[in-house]
Prior knowledge:
Elements: H1 15-44, H2 48-51, H3 55-74, H4 76-82, H5 84-129, E1 132-134, E2 137-139
Antiparallel strand pairs: 1-2
Amino acid sequence: MQPATETKPARIVDRAGADALIAHILQTMRALEEILTEEGGHVRAGRLRQGLSQTERKTALAASYMQGLEVAKANAIALARFAPEAIEGLKAAHRRFADVVQTSQVVLATARTVSESLVKSLAEDMNRSRTATVYGRPSQPPSPYGRGAAGRSQPLVLSRSL
């Protein structure tokens, strides 16, 4: 499904227009939900590249969804008059969609925290192996160049082929 690129009418004047607007919003919401669910599955499995491969499509759908909501807000009175039952369905779908978005945010935040933790522990392990120990405690001999311990740390290099 491709997001609609045509501009929606700024004013709803009949039931057909109200139904079309709500159908467009629901369709966009479903497509976004599918992408977020798929993205979450990939991220949970550690396939970040595949999980983030549909960023452009997700951005376009999110923009279309927000436009649809703005049109719905601008036409709230007409929508309530012409399609009150569809409004209730839209509200219920929006609540379900909010749960999907919340879950997606939790998955991405967890992945970010895990990756930051891994990089931090890797950097600490690499620096620990370069530090001399005296009586079981880390020790830094004085530097003849006056840079201290900070001058001896090396940059962290990661291999992307792993």
